[in-house]
Fold:
Amino acid sequence: MAENHRNSEGLPSAMTRLVRSLARLPGIGEKTATRLVLVLLSWPRERVIELAESLLEMKERVGLCTSCFGLSDTATCNVCADAQRDQGSICVVETPADLLAIERARAFKGVYHVLHGALAPVQGIGPDDLKISELRERIERNPAGTVREVIIATNATVEGDATALYLAKVLRPLGIKTTRLARGLPTGSDLEYSDVATLSAALNYRREL
Structure:
């Protein structure tokens, strides 16, 4: 009878189900998921309940900021609501993960706009599938001169470049300074070990000293 509750690897079915669920997460394979399940099994019941409640709370409460479309558990996210942030500088990113990456660098003091993707016609993703019209409307809602610069921080991919060019075209009639994140050689790197694409970008985006 006990055999009916175990899989081929010898785990109880309840553990197998959790392993399969965790293995769906990016970067977590079956082995890592199994180790995590074994750790969770050793936790006190109260700690497991706390984790489960945290997951449910996140799923139920976290949505999109009504201004920048970043993640937030309130109508306006912490960045947009921060009076110390420069509202005249908007950094446009593809995903909430990109926003978090820039925030970790602690080098940008403006606000953000999350597109939730990039243009990819082959995959059927067009301008209407992204938060592009919302960006333009956001700028137009503000008094003239409020937004001084839009920094396009889409990824250095074919899709990211296409999105950047499209955004520049959309924003041009508004007369706002539009810039693109520089890219090229990372600090401390040697030219001989750099790939062709990186060297090409470094040359194309060079600046005067």
Observations:
- Confidence is low (pLDDT under 50) at residues 1-8.
